[in-house]
Amino acid sequence: MKTPFISAVLAVLWKDLQVELRSRELVGSMGLFALLSILIFSFALELDRIARTESVSGVLWVTVVYASVLGLNRSLAMERDQGNLDALLLAPVDRTAIYFGKLIGNFIFTLVVGLTLILLMTVLYNLTLTRLWLIVVLVLGTLGFSTVGTLLATMTVQTRARESLLPIVMMPVALPLLLSAVRASTGILNETPQEDWLAWVQILAVLNVVYMTMSFLLFEYVIEE
Amino acid sequence: MGAVRQMPMTDSTPDVSPQTDRMPRLLMILTLVTIIAVAVGIYMALFYAGTDIEQGEVQRIFYIHVPSFAATFVAFSATVLGGILYLRTRSVKWDTLALAGVEVGLVLAIINLATGSVWARPIWNTWWNWDPRLTLDAIMVLTYAAYLMLRNGIENPETRRRFASVYGIFAFATVIATLMITRIRPDTIHPVVFGPILTDASQMSVQGDFELAATAGVTTVIAYNSFVWSTLLPATLIWHRIRLENLAQRVQSLKARVLGE
Q: Which residues of B touch A179 (CB under 8 A)?
């Protein structure tokens, strides 16, 4: 007797949300990292008024990617260390339901950090980042990182190198996402005509579909034991 | 190792049998044919094809550059095939095929990048630029380098093969992206040699695509070289790599047996 797919996904998601609400561990460390990162960038790149508009989307996305790597490592290591992954595997649910539960959880946490980052950068850099299209790009970008990252982090937490391996295997695969997200955001923030950057948003959406399909098909091979 | 040879063969796994020492005859013939075919291709590229009117002699790099990407594509496809079949059948030989595909593909991809750079220096006046296709190609190389890192990071051989198969299949997305980008993004300055060109003729002249077919022999030589490089060359190299892997495994098991005495 299997639990229906949707309720299994929701159960895994609800578990993650509850843990996060009580500990605030993931969003806390990711948020603090993101804040530190934009401070470091602002000193390291000596971001003055003109330089900011040029490089703000790069700063935003690099920070989001690294924050998501941080969160993904924590999120999956938590399952592994406390033996929860084995319990999940014993449960009579679809393996892919576990994947989607974890994916949605990671996506929500990364999105929260990304939105906070947009607000913070709007204040600290004195630029209007709160635009509808930028939020669309942020949603698509973080969804893509979480899709790839949840699959790959499930693999890397089971290896010897653990935390250090995730960025190495995830970055190259996530780079097409990063590339199109940065190009789209730069276009939006510089207020160039829509037809110049809309193609990048479309590529981002297509990449999401491709990565999600592949992860959906491959996840069951990553956690069998 | 003399003691090992006299020992009764208790282990009946096929890779410990003495036949695997000698190179199979078919592989020897294939290697010879490949060497001749590649040499003929290089000869044709250097002497048979006419000199390009716009680019001069440097255009001859195309005859290696384009085939080497075709060969990369085939080698990485072998990795996908090996990955899928390994996950289906759990037979070690498919994982060996996947690994051989990655290593051979990486070498061919680096040949592709290096020849591209040499061509770009006189034509674009720079070794490298951050054109979408070049960037994606570099990402592709890094992805497969990460594949090797991932393999090294896992001790349990069964887990290593399983994860490597998954990542090998996943990594192919970057190969597709590299191939497709010149069709999706018309603002790339990289010329499109294969397949339909979606941009119209007026844009092409502005963005640096070339009318290659005008030079005598270009199509023939590119077609011939691409055929050789995408069939004979990767097949031979992958076969050699698989044989090397099997021999290495055999050395490992013999070593283990000596230590076990």
A: 132, 135-136
